[in-house]
Amino acid sequence: MNGRQRRLNRILNKKTGRSLVIAVDHGMALGAMTGIVDIAKTIRDLDALNKIDCWLMTKGVYVHAFDPAGDPGVILRASGGATIAGPDLTREGLTATVKEALHLGTDAMATSAFIGSDFEHETLINMAALAGKCRKWDMPLLGVIGLGKTNEDKKKDPKFIALASRVGAEHGADIIKTYYTETDFDKVVAGCPVPVMIAGGPKCESDLDTLKMIHGALQGGAKGIVMGRNVWQSPHPAALLSAVYGLIHENMNVTEAAELLAHGIAGE
Ligand code: 5RP
Fold first, then answer.
1. Percent helix, strand and coil across the chain, each rounded to 5?
2. Which residues sit opposite 141 in a β-bridge?
3. How far is ligand 1, taken at its centre, from the CA of residue 230, in Å?
4. Domain residues of the chain, as ranges?
5. Is 14 left (phi over 0), alpha (psi -120 to 50) or beta?
6. Half-sphere exposure of 163 (CA within 13 A, CB side)
7. Nearest atom in ligand 1 to 229's CA
8. How do strand 141-146 and strand 175-178 relate by DSSP bridges?
9. Catalytic residue positions, numbered
């Protein structure tokens, strides 16, 4: 055992090798969004269901609003400094140090790289620099793959997502969070030497679509999700979370997970 493995074990479930991570780091750029206006309550209510392996959040939320019922893992978002009010959301810099993460007791850190954007170089250099510091202290690093507005159309392009994911791993990330491509997602995973997890992207049309997307990603070899809006903006977050857990940790198929979702909704 070593510190890095111990921390990774708090993210990737030891029994299944997969992880259900809920992201609540959106406010750092987008402000108070539906579903996380009262972020302390969202965290408390969802965590009480005992289905979440780990959370992704900023230090501000961790310090002021994180009081979960259980003892989930935490990935500290360590890049930011750009908002929707500013000139470019992709102009992120590092916003937290490894020392802060160790002091806060988080299990990993996360930084974004915006592939193909004007700030590709800066954000990749940030990732590589943080990866070096993380490695020194056995702190795992989640590489968050972003694309930027000009590349939105590339989100579904498996070749581009494969390139972006591989680039993130090559710059030192221990886990990659990227977008799900409906075709050839297995090729994205095959070309990435570290575990790949999917983000939600813009919210899916329905909870069933969310389940289908997650199932497709798992079939392609994803190790789980780092997802936000699809869960906490769902009309039925608790029921959906159980169904997502079924897919990730109980190997359910979409029909079984959808039945669990319907059952959960009926019991509300
Ligand atoms: C926000 C992020 C989110 O962590 C990420 O996009 C996952 O959330 P969602 O599923 O809502 O897209 O990077 O800055």
1. 45, 15, 40
2. 109
3. 10
4. 3-266
5. alpha
6. 11
7. 11
8. parallel
9. 177
For 79, the token pair is 């890049």
Quick check: helix, strand or coil at residue 6?
A: helix
Burial bucket for residue 166 (CB in 10 Å: 0-12, 13-18, 19+): middle
Question: How far, in Å, is the centroid of ligand 1 from the Cα of 229?
Answer: 7
Q: How far is CA 77 from the centre of its chain?
A: 10
Q: Atom 2 of ligand 1 has which residue's CA nearest to it?
A: 26
Q: Report the nearest atom of ligand 1 relative to the CA of 112.
A: 13
The per-residue pLDDT for range 185-238, each reduced to its tens digit, is: 999 999 999 999 999 977 899 999 999 999 999 999 999 999 999 999 999 999
Q: What is the DSSP letter of 75?
A: E
Query: Which of 219, 233, 221, 224 lies closest to 199, judged by CA?
Result: 224
Quick one: which of 97, 108, 112, 107 has its CA closest to 26? 112
Ligand 1 centre distance from Cα of residue 1 (Å): 31
Q: What is the 3-state secondary structure (H, E, C) of 213-253?
A: HHHHHHHCCCCEEEECHHHHCCCCHHHHHHHHHHHHHCCCC
Pairwise CA distance, residues 239 & 235, whole Å: 9
Three-state DSSP state, 77 = strand
Mutate which of 21, 24, 25 for ligand 1? The one with the most ligand atoms within 8 Å of its CB, which is 25
- Tokens 């019991």 identify what position? 267
Strands 79-80 and 93-94: antiparallel
Q: Which residues of 186-206 are buried (b: 16+ CB within 10 A; e: fewer)?
A: bbbbebbebbbbbbbbebbee
Is domain 3-266 classified as CATH 3.40.30.10? no
> Tell me: the pLDDT tens digits for 14-46?
999 999 999 999 999 999 999 999 999 999 999
